[in-house]
Each structure stands twice: as C-alpha cells, then as structure tokens.
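Dear colleagues,

For the upcoming journal club I promised to circulate an example of a predicted protein-ligand complex. I picked one with uridine-5'-diphosphate because it came up in last month's discussion. The inputs are reproduced below in full, followed by the predicted structure.
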Amino acid sequence: MEDRYVLVTGGAGYIGSHTVRLLCSEGYRVVVLDNLVYGHEGAIVDESAKLVVGEVGDRDLLTRLFAAHHFIGVIHFAAYAYVGESVNDPLKYYRNNTAEPLTLLEVMSEFGCKSFVFSSTCATYGEPERLPLTEDHPQKPVSPYGKSKLMVEWILDDCDIAWNLKSAALRYFNASGCSTDGLIGEDHSPETHLIPLVLQAIKGEVPEITVFGTDYPTDDGTCIRDYIHVEDLATAHLAALRHLTGGGDSLRCNLGTGIGISVKEIIDIAEEVTGQKVPVKYGARRPGDPAHLVADPEQAKKLLNWEASRKDPRSMIETSWKWMSQPHDGHFPS
Ligand code: UDP
C-alpha cells in the first residue's frame, strides 16, 4: 500500500496528540509540525510519527516538507486557545490563528494538496439564540479567539470556490478526558479548564476550584456545557480526513455529545470518581460565559457517520484522574 502521509500541525498539543496516535494506529504516516510553545514533545508517543519543530507560517519549512512528502491531507490544530488572553491580546490571536494558516494554505495550493481538516470551535457561535446549537445557527463570536477561528472558516469557504480546497471545520464543544490507557493527556500551562482544575483541587495542587457564577438561569444556577471525550474528537478527525480524501465535499460539523452537564454536576461526579471531597469556592460569573451551550450532534452523524462513543461525563473524569494519578502527576516531562 502506498504511504499515506498526513501533516498534523499542533500535533504535540492536547487534541492533536490523541489524533496523531489514532492516525498512526490506522497506518497513516504522520508528520507533526509544532512550535512546542504549548505542545509537548513527550505527547508524541508513536515512533513512526515524525516531529518537526517550527511554525505554520514558515513558508520555506513548509515548502521543504511538502516537497519531501506527498501529503494526502492536512489536519490543522495549531492555534492559541485561551479565550481570556485573546480579549487582552487580540493581535496575538489574529496573527497566530488567522494569519499564519494563510501561508499553510498557499503552500497546500502550490502542491495541489486539497484536503484540510480544521479545528474550529463552538465559540464561533457566540451567545446562543436557540438550543441545541445546529450548524446553521448564526455565528456571532464574542471573543477574538472565536472570531480568529470563524475567519478561517470563511477563508476555507473562499478557497473551496477558488481552487477546490475541500475542508472539514469541526466545531468542538468542551474537549475533556485523557487517553484510556493513561499514556497521554491534558497538560496545559496555565490550566484554565474545569475538569483538570477540579482534579487539581482534589490533589491539593490548587487550593480550591472557584465556581464561576451560581445565578445562571439553569436548574442549579451553574453553567451547562457539552463535554466531549478527547478520544472521540480524535475519531471524528479521522472520519473527516477519510471523508475529504475519499472525494467528499466540504462540511462544517459540531462535535459534541448533545448532553448538557452543569459545573456542579461535574464537581459531584469528580467526588464520586475519586472518593474525595472537592474544595469549592463560589465566585462571580466569568465575563463572556454563556449560561448554556449544547451541540446538536446530528450533522456529524449524517455526514461523517460519527458520533461520540462516550456520553457519560464520568468517563471524561475517570480518564483524566487516571492520567493525573500517575507518577508524572498529569505532566509531560519537560
Ligand atoms: N468554570 C468554573 N471554574 C473554573 C473554570 C471553569 O466554574 O475554574 C466553568 C466555566 O464558567 C464554564 C465551565 O466551567 O461554565 C467550563 O469552562 P472551561 O473553561 O472548562 O471551558 P469553556 O466552556 O470556557 O470552553
């Protein structure tokens, strides 16, 4: 069988590294391009995957990579993803998330590579006008992060018209959990996400978890989100790559379970899973947090024949706890 080379940008990051593992196990030849600003070399555990340290906007490097490998497609994860930081430093986000991929797309066009799987986000929708969120919901992002991703979706639409680039923009809801075998996981610095912070509070690594807002119009007053397991996100990327390289049309899909879980419910489940109490502080709302975000996952089922295999948030918390309970304490060696 001919080698099926895939370029994965940001493949040393959280979702990228789980996808790289899956691609390798499916026989793809993976080249990871990652600047290791937030990614970890140790997150690439398959010897067959090749790590190239560099930038998505480095035209000479990309040209060399495309000349050396016949890439059947690109999966583009590389991006900054701190919503709060994006508000304070928008140009950093527009530069890295929106402008840098232009070079990647130009080089793809030069080499005739026409399959692009893109990490998009439910943050492109902004404040929901109706729930669950379907892909045709208006996209009015409120943060520069969400806008930086939406602009890439628009660019991809135009590249399809101009040079037949086929793209899958996958709009993730709340990525969570770690690999089932505990080998790789979530290692953000700084960590801002709910589940790892709850578990860090249990371990005493942070003094407590602050619940951002208890006066939302939800049953228990805390925000509701759709938590999707990172290994399910990986299978969705594989399905999207196969769809595009098999001649499928461009698509935009939500990746979620369709099930909403509140912050308080996450804390309760974490206590059940670990058998330990979570030190909790109740605080003010975090600016920009909608009360309720849940995906309608039907489009991904229809177009990619994909759906989340784990819908119980217990499995996200169990796998995260497994990763965090190992000798490395949920951190890759630096
Ligand atoms: N959250 C919280 N305390 C924290 C971090 C998050 O109460 O320290 C809440 C946050 O308000 C949101 C949910 O947990 O409702 C998930 O937040 P996270 O940052 O994990 O993901 P986001 O939904 O912002 O993408």
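Two points we might discuss: DSSP finds ten helices and 13 strands in the chain. Residues 174, 192-194, 197, 209-212, 223, 225, 263, 286, 289 surround uridine-5'-diphosphate (CB under 6 Å).

See you all on Thursday,
B. R.
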